[in-house]
Amino acid sequence: MSDTLPPCPECNSSFTYEMDALLICPECGHEWSASGDADAPAEVRDAVGNVLNDGDTVTVIKDLKVKGSSSVVKVGTKVRGIRLVDGDHDIDCKVPGIGQMGLKSQFVKKVSE
Ligand SMILES: [Zn+2]
């Protein structure tokens, strides 16, 4: 364990502190996982192992129930302009016909346009 915590990836503040497995930035409120190699940005991969980036287009590879509603994101739904985030659902995006929601990277596949 090192006493030197990495700076906030959002605002570069060096006033980050640790709480359980999370690092927290008091300046912008960003929280992220402290596990893993702090020097290497975490790679988010899709169902077949492609590395995903902000702004990518993906398709959903299985029907996904939308939490708190009766809507289902159908397999094959194309989602443009994804944003990678930390957490269980590591993709933040706007799904056509559904709206803003989180997806798990293992349930999508990158589309090259
Ligand atoms: Zn910050």
From TrEMBL:
Gene3D superfamilies (alphabetical): 2.20.25.10, SH3 Domains (2.30.30.40)
Domain Protein YjdM C-terminal: 44-111
Domain Protein YjdM N-terminal intervals: 4-33
A Pfam family matched in the record: YjdM
SUPFAM superfamilies attached to this UniProt entry: Prokaryotic SH3-related domain (SSF82057), Zinc beta-ribbon (SSF57783)
Family: Belongs to the YjdM family.
Name of protein: Alkylphosphonate utilization protein
Source species taxonomy: Bacteria, Pseudomonadati, Pseudomonadota, Alphaproteobacteria, Rhodobacterales
